[in-house]
Every structure is written in structure tokens, then in C-alpha cells.
Design a protein that fits this description.
The chain is an all-alpha fold. The chain contains 13 helices and no strands. The N terminus is likely disordered.
Length: 331
């Protein structure tokens, strides 16, 4: 038994180590590559406010805020996806399945349509996201009446409704505004500033989800089994919903609707035989953050001087992976 426990600890440490190295390398690549490539020496000098003024400005004003936003948003989406897959008892659940992204995107596009100031975009996204969360709470989390299928159907219905409004806004919008709207809908980090508040949400999300991780493992056994083991199933699921929804809202508000990160990353980890949520959640944060850093770097450098919305790149990578995972898990 002692040997098995030591082996498990070693395996956990190796997994965290590999994920941390992947995250660090992804961040380094994101900071180095772009319209102006920075060598390791120039990067190091700029980080400490040495070297040329141009390199310092590129690092601190452009690259670092964007890469930090990518890492934070990728981590938030990955954790949210992992939590929702437990909540909905569905391994193919996605952070955007419950309409949070649709609510935020609808609010942002309406602000753009009416030509309101740019500084209102993020507050508007927050209002739209929490409006959607409130609707889901009202419909799905009634005392004594909550069910996973009701939550899922509510999210699907809200997503369809918001999708219809978004399509209407795109039709009515002037051609000069449509490109900016499409970039928001596909995920865009080009306007991302320092993700200070999103980082605070990430820290709170990690602490709260890790505190719940032993309970999440029990919920995988089913509601009835978890209840017999002393778990307060309804309050726990409400807490999971709120944590996942707020994490998704923070990511969407910072970077727009970036798809597939929260769906793919937890699955990749499970394919590597990582199913214990005490291991899965921190690994999802590191791998998800690193993955979005890499895809955002690709979005920036593939077609210089133009750049793609990062959501396009995550979809191009995520769709084939999703189909493979769907084939492996047909149920």
C-alpha cells in the first residue's frame, strides 16, 4: 500500500510538473512572437525595464497584458468546463452551454449597434452574463424542483434565444460595425488589457473548486449514491453552477466567446487517465491557460500583419479533437 501511495504521489507530481512546464513555455512563446519577434535576451531585458524603449513598450504595453489575459481566460474556461461536466452528468458539457456567453454577447452587440462608448463594453458584458445566470437560476433552481435535464434545457433554450437576437443585430448593424461584432463573437484578445479582476476571479474559482473537489468525485457516482454518503446534493450543485457560471462570465467579458477550450482540455486530461478532481482541476487550469496562450499566438502570427480571432484557431483545433472524442464516447 505504501508503495502504491508513493507511486501515486510521484505520478501526481510529474503531471503537475509537465503541465507547469507546458504553461511556462506557452507563455514564453506568446511573449516572444508577434509582429516584432523578441529573442530570449531581449525578452529578459525588457522584462526588467532594460534594453530598448521599443522592446519595453512591446513587452509591457502589448504582449504581457494579452498573454496574461489568454492564460487567465483559458484557465477559467477549462475549470468551468470540468465543473459543468459533473453538474450536468454529461462529459460533453461546455462552459457556453448554459447561455452565459449568449447573454454577454447579446448585451455587447446591442451596445455596439447603438454606438455607445467603448468603455461600456465590459460592464455591458457583465450585465448580460449575470442576466443570463439569473434567468437560469429562476427557471432551473427552484426549491425541491431542480433537475439536470431542466438546467440543460433551460441553457439550450436561452442560447437559442440569444442566438436569434445576435443574428438580428448582425443583420441590422452597419457594415462598418459588423467586423468588430464578429471578432467579439469568435473571441478576440487584441483589445484585452491587464486581466486584474479576471485574475482575482480565477484565484477565487481555484480555491472554491478545489475545496469542492472531494465532493465532485462523489457526485460522479450519481446523486443518489452521493446523498447516501452524506452529500447535500442540491446546495452543492447550486454552488458548482455559480462557480462555473461566474468563471465563464469573467472569461467572456475579458476576451469574448472563445469556444472549445472548456470542452477539450478536461477530455484530454481524462484521456491521460486523470479523473480525480483533486488532480484534474489544477491541471485543467495550467493546460487550459497554456493552450489558449499558444492558440492566441498562432492567431497573431499565422497571417502577419493581419490576425485572426483566437476563437477561430481554437475551433480549427477543437473540432477535430471533439469529433475524435465523440467517436470514443458515443454515449
Amino acid at each position: 500500500m505504501a508503495r502504491n501511495q508513493s507511486s501515486l504521489v510521484f505520478h501526481d507530481g510529474m503531471a503537475i510538473g509537465y503541465a507547469a512546464v507546458f504553461a511556462i513555455l506557452s507563455i514564453g512563446i506568446g511573449l516572444a512572437l508577434g509582429g516584432v519577434h523578441l529573442t530570449a535576451d531581449r525578452l529578459w531585458q525588457a522584462m526588467w525595464h532594460k534594453g530598448s524603449i521599443e522592446d519595453i513598450l512591446i513587452f509591457w504595453k502589448i504582449r504581457f497584458p494579452r498573454v496574461a489575459s489568454a492564460f487567465v481566460c483559458g484557465s477559467l474556461l477549462s475549470i468551468s468546463g470540468a465543473l459543468l461536466q459533473v453538474l450536468l452528468c454529461n462529459p460533453l458539457a461546455d462552459p457556453y452551454l448554459l447561455g452565459v456567453s449568449g447573454g454577454a454577447s447579446t448585451a455587447v452587440l446591442l451596445l455596439m449597434l447603438f454606438g455607445l462608448p467603448a468603455w461600456l463594453i465590459r460592464p455591458g458584458a457583465v450585465v448580460g452574463a449575470f442576466f443570463s445566470i439569473g434567468l437560469v437560476l429562476i427557471v432551473s433552481f427552484r426549491t425541491g424542483g431542480w433537475r439536470s435535464d431542466r438546467l440543460l434545457l433551460t441553457g439550450v433554450a436561452l442560447s437559442a434565444g440569444f442566438g436569434a437576437i445576435i443574428s438580428l443585430v448582425l443583420v441590422l448593424a452597419p457594415s462598418t460595425s459588423v467586423k468588430g461584432m464578429l471578432f467579439w463573437l469568435m473571441g478576440d484578445l487584441s483589445q484585452a488589457g491587464m486581466p486584474t479582476w479576471a485574475f482575482l476571479v480565477l484565484i477565487i474559482t481555484i480555491i472554491a473548486s478545489m475545496w469542492l473537489s472531494p465532493v465532485l468525485n462523489l457526485l460522479l457516482l450519481g446523486d443518489a449514491k452521493a446523498a447516501t454518503l452524506g452529500i447535500a446534493v442540491w446546495p452543492t450543485k447550486l454552488a458548482i453552477f455559480l462557480i462555473a457560471s461566474i468563471a465563464t462570465a469573467a472569461a467572456v467579458t475579458q476576451a469574448g466567446a472563445i469556444g472549445f477550450v472548456g470542452l477539450i482540455v478536461p477530455h484530454v486530461l481524462r484521456l491521460l487517465d486523470i479523473s480525480d478532481y483533486r488532480r484534474l482541476l489544477p491541471l485543467a487550469a495550467l493546460v487550459g491557460g497554456g493552450f489558449l496562450c499558444l492558440t492566441d499566438t498562432l492567431a497573431r502570427v499565422m497571417f502577419l500583419p493581419s490576425e485572426l480571432p483566437v476563437g477561430v484557431v481554437t475551433a480549427l483545433i477543437g473540432v477535430p479533437l471533439f469529433l475524435v472524442l465523440l467517436a470514443r464516447n458515443p454515449t
